[in-house]
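Working notes for the structural subgroup meeting. M.R. asked for a predicted model of this chain before we commit to crystallization trials. I am recording the input and output together here so anyone reviewing the notebook later can reproduce the run.

Input as submitted:
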Amino acid sequence: MASLQTLSSTISRLNLLQRSSFNYSLTSLKLLKFYEQRIIRPARSPLSFSTLSNRSSTFKPIKMSSKDDLIVLGIETSCDDTAAAVVRGSGEILSQVVSSQADLLVQYGGVAPKMAEEAHSQAIDPVVQEALDKANLTERDLSAVAVTIGPGLSLCLRVGVQKARNIASRFNLPVVGVHHMEAHALVARLIERELQFPFLALLISGGHNLLVLAHNLGQYTQLGTTIDDAIGEAFDKTAKWLGLDLRRSGGPAVEKLALEGDSQAVKFSTPMKQHKDCNFSYAGLKTQVRLAIESRNIDATIPISSASSQDRNSRADIAASFQRVAVLHLEERCQRAIEWALKIEPSIKHLVVSGGVASNKYVRARLDQVVRKNSLQLVCPPPSLCTDNGVMVAWTGIEHFCVGRYDPPPSVIEPEDFVYDLRPRWPLGEEYAEGRSEARSLRTARIHPSLTSLIQASMQQQS
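Returned structure, recorded in token form:
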């Protein structure tokens, strides 16, 4: 136990403890032998207000029949959806609940952090309770709580973290801190049980474009990332400028309108053609779209439902042309990433595409062509698991818990000045040498070491 405490104070990872993080102990795996053991049920008697070291000593493994007995609550509040889910170690989804902030998105034209925080605060208790009720369980039936701690908006992340720690402390449950982007990648392993490491993943959402090579659980090489704006942001802005209904978010609105348009009508330039890497940029394409809308005198204050036939056709052509070029940028980057990935890991067989934009049918169809051309298989979670959700958080928590990466139960009473370990800007993997871009700005400066580097450091500590 002393060695575990030393490691916890040395390696800060995914947990929510004040300045001493996530216990990445391979020794704990040996102690748990998780496939044959389970964690102890919450204590029936009130917990003492002891120190962490004394408190964690009450958290001991006991025998269990199989990994399938594990039951994890996942909580996600990284941006504009409040989500919770309960998942078994077998992969069975017992419940899934999402509270959307669609009305706020329409009102503020995007995510307003303070308003989003307030919405999360109002929704978190009923969302978690509904997830437990739908699963026909109480907190005493849980084995652990998993929660997103980054990347995301700090104000929003804090709401989920506080709720997770409150449940964990009251019911003597371990906590698993989860990387939001890793969760998007790993949820594919819940859906496609044949998906084994290594694999390539394209993670596309409103805030992120990321191409990573997944070597193993928690170990990733970043092949490409967003230099400025992500594809989801470009979809959202295009939808707003075209006067579309944002209650379902910009992506679905643009995709629907694009079906009516001519994708060759507007000659947009494909981003970063001159850069032979796997990084992404959508700021320039956004500017092209805005100028095209202005040149056609499209008035975004007139909703698409009230537009004239000619005006609607013009908007549809812009939507279709934008979508074609935006996805062509993805295709080109994925093709190069596949070539790089096969050099590093020749055994890869799958490309996982996940994140909110992966719900787009046009995106899936175009990327499926790229994958088939390279004799790989495309794996896309269903749309309900592409957008932010609690299932992906719970499943990622299960994967890490099974190899001993978790925090012991938090203290029942935490000081008023307690500092939560939130990681709003947190890389998933280390950059591939050929993928480094000189064009990346200071906004990409790291606040936290990557998830991969933290895990590698902890493994070296144990070797």
